[in-house]
Here is the input.
Amino acid sequence: MLNVTVWNENRHEQSSEEVRSVYPNGIHGAIADFLKEDYEVRTATLDEPEHGLSEAVLNNTDVLLWWGHIAHEEVSDEIVNRVHQRVLDGMGLIVLHSGHFSKIFKKLMGTGCDLKWREADEKERMWIVDPTHPIAEGLGEKIELEREEMYGEHFDIPAPDELVFVSWFEGGEVFRSGCTYKRGQGKVFYFRPGHETYPTYYHKDIQRVMKNAVAWAKPTTIPKPVYGNAKPLETIASK
Ligand code: ZN
Here is the structure.
């Protein structure tokens, strides 16, 4: 069974009664609850030693999920570098919602990762634009969320390797909501929904996407490529 670590900065939950009422066990707790149906799951949070992401934890993590918002700058560069190296070595990474501005996502993308946003209790209609993609398995042609935060284009990311979802918002904007990337041996998926004051992570289709994304992002079993100076496989004729 795949080992999954759900990382959350867990700060809104401590400061906001509204967020606690939606996610009494934290956003990480809500995500872990449904992922446990299919995977071996642990959680980790910002205020734990090493943010809960020790070498031992990361070395035993096949796929890491990342939710952060107001405390990106409090994540130490040492831990960001450690996560980055694990991704390059093959660990899957799923970056959620406001994690678009996390140090790890920006480092992996190499761009500013900025976007438009608005909190106006508006409808989000997320269209599946790649129905053959394993992350879209089991879904219909769209997912509707009655209330979400708006994220709008332009989203300052590199062109995704694959685009799985595009969102439309009631106010008129659109957004690339499901983007895949490969970095080194690792797979990265950015997934937009999940504002802290809405019950998005209880939505069955959102849960389906995240379960699918874990399966998609799991490390491959192929041996790590050998780099550097290479002996010829065949005799090279002298010329
Ligand atoms: Zn938000």
Remarks:
- The pocket of zinc ion is lined by residues 97-98, 149, 195 (CB under 6 Å).
- The chain has a mean pLDDT of 98.
- Helices lie at 12-15, 17-22, 26-35, 55-59, 77-88, 103-109, 204-217.
- The longest strand covers residues 116-128.
